[in-house]
Design brief:
By secondary structure, the chain is of the alpha+beta class. It has eleven helices and five strands. It has helices spanning about 5-15, 25-30, 45-55, 65-80, 85-95, 100-105, 110-125, 130-140, 175-185, 200-210, 225-235, and strands at about 155-165, 165-175, 190-200, 215-220, 220-225. Strand 4 and strand 5 (about 220-225) form a beta hairpin.
Length: about 240
């Protein structure tokens, strides 16, 4: 990999992005140029490469103001009407380049820790009662286990992909085996489970896949999927 080629690609992708450089992760997605192709060979930091290319740096890739990060996330919460999952953040970022990527949010810790951080932020401001309520729900759902109490699994469920004939059903359940049995009784053709995704947000993950395959929807939760669609679903073990 030549240095001149990387600089050319930085300038080309920046021009397509309104004159602002891409972050190194999105740059990899757009060009196939890996961090190992340039780091330690031509530049120590991505910002050094961008500077040499002579394009404007994307300030979100340099440093984030914590309040701005939280405000961006709150905007997504209000759009979805609930606490979004990582898959939804990634989906939203495709249409909003100003949204920090999911790795930025991971620095706040677990989902419950981040919800607690946002709740604290909201409690210091007026007009955030709706967001505070969403955060309270997340925190309460994962309260610490009391001594002697058996571990609770009610918040963990599954999003499943079931096939019957030529169609696939994407749904959610706390017991995939039971759901397959119920469907087998109802359907004229044999139903078989293709794959299940374990999740702490069954409703959110189900909604994500329904949205992703919206153009293949036939009726309700039934879809006419292609082999690549099925492969994409099967890649996920947990969301």
């Amino acid at each position: 990999m030549k240095k001149e080629h990387i600089l050319h690609e930085i300038r080309r992708t920046a021009e397509a992005n309104g004159g602002v450089s891409l972050g190194k992760e999105r740059f990899l997605q757009e060009t196939g140029i890996r961090e190992s192709d340039w780091k330690g060979k031509f530049w120590a930091r991505w910002s050094d490469a961008v500077r040499e290319a002579g394009v404007e740096s994307n300030q979100f890739n340099v440093a984030y103001d914590e309040d701005l990060i939280i405000e961006k996330f709150i905007a997504v919460m209000r759009e979805f009407g609930r606490f979004p999952v990582i898959a939804e953040i990634r989906m939203k970022k495709r249409s909003d380049a100003s949204l920090p990527n999911d790795k930025t949010y991971r620095r706040f810790g677990s989902k419950q820790q981040f919800a607690a951080k946002i709740l604290e932020y909201c409690q210091r401001r007026a007009g955030y009662e709706d967001v505070a309520a969403m955060c309270t729900t997340i925190i309460a759902r994962h309260r610490p286990q009391a001594e002697g109490e058996t571990e609770a699994h009610e918040s963990i469920g599954f999003v499943y992909l079931i096939k019957a004939g030529r169609y696939y059903k994407i749904g959610r359940s706390n017991s995939v085996g039971r759901r397959e049995y119920e469907l087998a009784i109802q359907l004229p053709e044999k139903a078989s489970t293709i794959h299940t995704i374990r999740t702490d947000d069954p409703a959110g993950i189900e909604a994500y896949w329904h949205t992703r395959f919206e153009d293949r929807r036939k009726n309700g939760e039934w879809f006419e999927l292609t082999p690549p669609d099925v492969t994409a679903f099967k890649r996920r073990k947990f969301m």
